[in-house]
Structure formats: C-alpha cells, structure tokens
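User: Small ask, check this?
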Amino acid sequence: MKSIAIIGSGALGLYYGTRLGLTGLDVRFLLRADLEAVRARGSIIVHLKDRTLELKPAAVFGTTAEIGPVDLVIVTTKTTSNPDLPALIAPLLGPDTAILTLQNGLGSDQLLADHFGPLRILGGLAFLGVNRTGPGIVTCIQDAELILGEFGRPISERLRLIVSFFAQAGIKTKAVDSLAEVQWIKLVWNVPFNGLSITAGGVTTDKITGNPALAEEAQGLMKEVQTAAAALGHIIPDEYLKTRYEGTVRMPPFKPSSLVDYLGGRPVEVEAIWGKPLRQAEAAGVDCPRWRRLYTELLRLLSKKE
C-alpha cells in the first residue's frame, strides 16, 4: 500500500496529505479552486506552531480520472458533498483499494459501504484545529489525535498498516475496535462548539468559553451528547468531557469548520453533526432539549441564508 488519493483538499485533506507525502508515500490530491495556484507554486504548505512544512513537488489533479487507481482513498470532503462521492471515488478503485473517510458526524461510512461494499471501508476521527489560510496553504493550531477503525469490524492488519503511515508522519494515531463509539466521542465537541459558534453570531471558541452563559450552554450540550451516547451503548467518561472543555479554553481563538463554511456561504453539515445523531438519541428515549434547540436554531439561520 503506497499510493494515496486525497478527496477533499480543504484544510484537513491538505494537512494529512502533506504530512503523509513528506514520508515518501505517493500522495495525489484532487484540487478544485486551488488547482492552478498550487500548480504554479508547485507545492502545498502547512504551517505548524513551531515550523513550516512544504510538500514539493505536490501531485495535484483536477479530476479523479486523472489520478487513477490507488491503494488508499482518504475522504475529507464535507458531508454536504456526499451525493457526489460515488462518482468521484469510482475511478480511483482497484481490486483491493481501501476507502478511509475522515468526515464529521454520522452516516458517511454507511453510505460508502452501501456503494462500494463494507470490506473496503474504514473510518476515522480527526481531533485537529486546522484552517485553510490560502490556496494550498493551511495553518494548524492544535494537533491532538487521529483515531481510526474498520467499518463494523475489529482492528485488522490493514488498519494497523494505515495507522503506521500516519505515525511515521509524526501524527499521534491509534486504532480502535468500535468506530461508532469514536464517532460519538467526537460529537461531544462538534455539537456544542461548531453549533454555538454560528448561533452566537459567528464567534471563535474563546468567545464561547469566555462568556458564562455560552460556556454553561456548551458544557450542557456536552453532557447531553454523553447521555445520548450511553443510551446507544457508548460510554464516554466524565473526565473526557472535562479534558476536552479545558483543552478548548487553552486553545488560541479558533473558527470551527462549520463556522468557516457558514461565513463563506457554503453548506453546513447540519444533518451529519446535529440532525442524524439527535434523532438517534431521541429514538433511544433520551431527552436533549439544548441539542434540539440548537439544531432548530441552526436550521432557522441557514434557511434565512438560502
């Protein structure tokens, strides 16, 4: 397994693709708006806290047909683009190509399994603070951990190999037996901070943790996600909520990805992050009044922008 296609070359895809490419792997990026600028410069740039990385030359393409079959497809598109994924991915598949989705929320792994078969599919959750700051340029303010799992299966040798690729790139990575549990763990942060950053008027994370009312709401939402996860068989310790919240307090001002999309006039992943998991929680008998109120307000705000 040596060739990798990055589908979704925004902040996440550029970051992970660059770090993997710098280990010597054959990484090929699908680019759209940034294609000509990156081709002219010949590189992708990642700014870290203490240094800058540059992948040069960068293998960038305008279509997946140009990329051709690879060993591993890493999907980092927004879930709002999921209807286009099957057509994008099809030209990249060989007999043994694996597909790893690093998308937010719930449902993407099942969608890919329905189209390409469950044995090809893996999923992952990126606990990462990174923004695209120019054409083919990203800035990372926090790189915590990448957690990967097989779709509906325990840890495999294939998964261990992929984990080793990220580890060689200097990324803290681990494999887990339950991908679904990790998806709920990430919702503990995504539901409150991605949502409140929009509904509070387009604010960065420090404005949420620094405002007593918003801070209380964020922590209340985290507890609701924890309770919902438990009802579905996924136990998230209290200590995890405390650690994630305190880590957010210490972060520099950060715009969550949903806020970046909202301010940029792009579709927001409302159903994958808020709608679908909320419906699962309520179907399991969990009352989530804060979460329901946040979801309703997001729908209202987004309908006004359409």
